[in-house]
Amino acid sequence: MTHRGKHGTHLVWDWNGTLLDDIVAVVGATNAAFAEAGLPPMTLERYREMYCVPIPRFYERLLGRLPTDAEWQRMDGIFHRHYAEQRVSCALTPGVEELLARWKRAGRSQSLLSMYGHEHLVPVVRDYGIEPHFVRVDGRTGPSGGSKALHMERHFEVLDGIDPERSVVIGDAVDDAVAAAHVGARAVLYTGGSHSRSSLEEAGVPVVDTLSEAVALAGSMVDD
């Protein structure tokens, strides 16, 4: 059996919009935050066309200006409060349990890195019953709204003997590809989350419509 990804491909999974099918909750919570600023609700399609990181820039696209620090703090607080209420009704993306179990049975390693706050992420992942599939689960520490790149760097610093160059990041956002490139890893982007397909394709990495396609492609991207 391959030991902890030292010889085989290692997967780094994103959480929100990838393993967790929560895009409806995310859009609902975003609309609640935007209502605070007097903005009308947006559709899922418009959200996917406009979404970008860092999040204040996303808000700027819709407000026509960057939110002030006070506005950002208030809107971010509203978002997280509404998201926490709506997340409980969200399920894992169909097929996730089997994909994770199959990868682990093959002797390959996988980890989870999310921009969801670490103190919230770990118990949530545990509640969904998939924590044992991962060699490590890391959420965001520090302020929300930024890029995943530095978090990805720290994630690999604490992964035991796992080489970024033999790793593939699977996520639903252009920022996942940016974070992967930052550490020298590959990336596959999934259309079921925060971005439209056309937006994802601008990242210059493979784009797929299912997580099973993502895993199959990831397995072929790094030579064992």
UniProtKB/TrEMBL annotation:
Pfam families: Hydrolase (PF00702). The lineage of its organism: Bacteria, Bacillati, Actinomycetota, Actinomycetes, Kitasatosporales. InterPro entries: HAD-like_hydrolase_sf (IPR050155), HAD-like_sf (IPR036412), HAD_sf (IPR023214), PGP-like_dom2 (IPR023198). This is Haloacid dehalogenase-like hydrolase.
